[in-house]
């Protein structure tokens, strides 16, 4: 009898201890979630085309990371809204389709809103304005748009520069050829497969600094050109990012990034 009574009491004690342990674990888990100590930040996948210095590019001499104005900006936005921004490189013309398909959550890539894009994605408030230029070889003799008559103009496919190049080509009777990435335009221009390229001023500045055989001049009719961040249609990210952008502007952070990364063509 004593053995049976002892075994019964042992089972009851073990049961009580197990229950207490489960409750403690549950309480600890709840506390961890409450104070955020063990919670992981949400990760947003950010698409960019890392061929657009100084906005997004890879400096091979310094490493493999994507750097630039846009990259610094989107990381600051992530801090403001409490998420980690995971940047990945893609071709520019695949960014909007990838956003539509849910492969990425955000696009920051020097992208300008236009009617076609606005039909399928939403854009935040603008965060940067710029000028457009025509870049040429100094020896080409091309110093104004009229000199482009009969020439081949390189543009990045699916960019605002493509539309601009087409307009210039109609006006002066030139030919437009698309390229997937900006360096291809410069390479083909240097090898005489192209005569000129339409680039954003800040991007052209980088090439002018490193290649003394190049020159640039502003496009005669400057389009309204500003950059915005793209998000999926109807996403609440638009309002969150807009709030973050306003705060960063008010704090002078965006101006600091402009002074760090951007210069106009002189």
What do these coordinates show?
The chain has nine helices and 15 strands. The chain has helices at 2-35, 69-81, 95-100, 115-118, 160-172, 182-190, 201-210, 237-250, 253-261; strands at 42-48, 51-52, 56-58, 66-67, 83-89, 106-107, 121-123, 128-129, 132-137, 152-156, 175-179, 196-200, 214-218, 226-227, 230-232. The protein has a five-stranded mixed sheet, with helices on both faces. The longest helix is centred in the N-terminal third of the chain and has 34 residues, at 2-35. Mean pLDDT is 88; it is low at 1-8 and 22-37.
Give the SSE layout:
Elements lengths: L1 H34 L6 E7 L2 E2 L3 E3 L7 E2 L1 H13 L1 E7 L5 H6 L5 E2 L7 H4 L2 E3 L4 E2 L2 E6 L14 E5 L3 H13 L2 E5 L2 H9 L5 E5 H10 L3 E5 L7 E2 L2 E3 L4 H14 L2 H9 L5
Parallel strand pairs: 1-5, 1-6, 10-11, 10-12
Antiparallel strand pairs: 2-3, 3-4, 7-15, 8-14, 9-12, 9-13
